[in-house]
Amino acid sequence: MTATYVYLLIFGCFTYLIATDASIAKAVYLISQMIRFRFERFKWWVKYSPDNPIVRYLIWRRSYKLAKELEEELKSNAK
Question: What is the model's pTM?
Answer without folding.
Answer: 0.60
